[in-house]
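Batch 3, record 17
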Amino acid sequence: MPARDRTGAALAGAFVVFVAAGFFLPSWAVSLVILSLARGIVALGLVVQFRSGLVSFGQALFFAIGGYAVGLAGLKLRLTDMIVLTVIGVAAATLLGAGLGFLMRRYREIFFAMLSLGFSMLFYGLLVKTETLGSTDGFNVPTPTIFGARLSALATRTLLYDLTVAAAAGAALGIHWYLGTILGRLDTALRDNEVRVEYLGYAPGRVIHVQYVLGAALAGGAGALTAMAVGHIDPSMAYWTTSGELVFVTILSGTGSVLAPFLGSLVFGLLQTYALQYAPSVWQMILGVALLAIILRLPGGLWSALERNRARA
Amino acid sequence: MATLAFIVADGVIYASWLFIVAVGMTLVYGVMRILNVAHGSLYALGAYTAATMVGVWFQRGYAPLGSFALLLVAALLVGVVMGLILELGLLQFLHGRDEVVVVLATYATFLILEDVIQLIWGVEARPAPQPYSLLGTTSVGPLLLNNYDLALIALALLVGGVGWWALTRTIAGKLLLAVIFDREMAEACGINVRRVFLVTFLIGSVLGALGGASTAPMISVSRGLGVDVIVLAFAVVVIGGLGSIPGALLGAAVIGLSRAAAVHLLPQAEVFAIYLIMTLVLIVRPYGLLGHERLRKV
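Prediction for the assembled complex:
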């Protein structure tokens, strides 16, 4: 008998715990959680694609689009409301994703990875040479406000934290629902055998397009949140190493649950914080060894280790 | 007219460099279906090793011309040692896994090697400029060309020529082609695919390291060398067609010339132009200019 689905309850529990913790956590931890959850939101989109066997090596494109949309809206339109800015980030990335999706849906495997990489590097090439946007230095994002009110730095930070927690929980819930629909269930079928999915009367291209737009929207929102949390954006947000890091988190997490990317991203964030503090010269080596260990020993990611333990208990 | 000459000269030199760097990557992909991100690390290792060896060579006051042989020795050393470690220590366990998973494994290798390089050579730059000025210059019309750059073009032609001869005119090359076209069938015919893989990977690694070693005198070898090279090599390989060696030559020429044109005519578009071409080629011909479409298997 399949285990009862407790994702909804777990999400609600995690939401309450995180919001409550926001009042007690020291400020470095608040930043860590904001950035980790935002990265988790991007990884959530990658998880959906990964379930059909597709890996985007250019998800940083939408992450950076979200960030730059926030920066530009602040700079040119004087918009500072954090909710409005997040929506703008999502909208910009969704529009671009919907457009590019018409091309991306025709690609599979390594070609999907390469074309997504191409688009992100194209955007990177545009950003580094655009002097009005600060070229390689980027520019600062104004401090966000909420409902027209400019609060103290501490209150702004807490509200941004709560917004990120809510966005992460909302995204997880939405994707969990999506994966339960017929459209969502087609993704693993696509990975197994695309031709047979076609025989069943479904259009694989359309499924992949929907996934791509979902991934873009999530990455755009996460980019917006990250830009507001860091207060600065620069072209490295769109560089291939950022995409690599996001894929890393996805592999580390595994595709077993919508909660997995957030767990994986928090582990990644903690690892990064401590490694950079105590062993900065071997930080990338730790990442590489961890990634190899996951690929060779734990293909289902950290989540599969959790599930294995639970099954044993 | 002078601008055109500059563009062509710069473009051809840059293309030669790109070809040497990318041909190993495309060869490895063609035979093994491994898109090796760590190729950039081999490039960086080759550059660092060559710079160190050249530095010691000139410090001890040995015959200056010997430093060219030293560059080749550095490439061979790095390529063979690292090739053996990577193939026997890691990649052979991943044969048969999903292509994209293997890309991630080589990405992990790249991350590890980045720190290894930094642990060995530290954060300081390693200049080794002596060989670059050793050969003197040649002036052609308005151009003043460094002979080292001309030697690089010759090296690229040599690599391409020997590669073409070895693939089409030797038994070993024909075995390799058989594996490229159909791995299963080749195995069924009694070709030792595992050994072909090892030899191919060693050649690919030596070529990657050679790219770095031959570049070392032209730049100041410093951190983050491999990161940019990887995407550039990707672009070359994708434009020409993954796994196609003539494709790598064509891809290198296209990128080399268009980058040189951008640098001289529209400097803002330097980075943009390269990836614009890569993306356009992927859109129009996903299998690259000289690649072959793979059949769908039910």
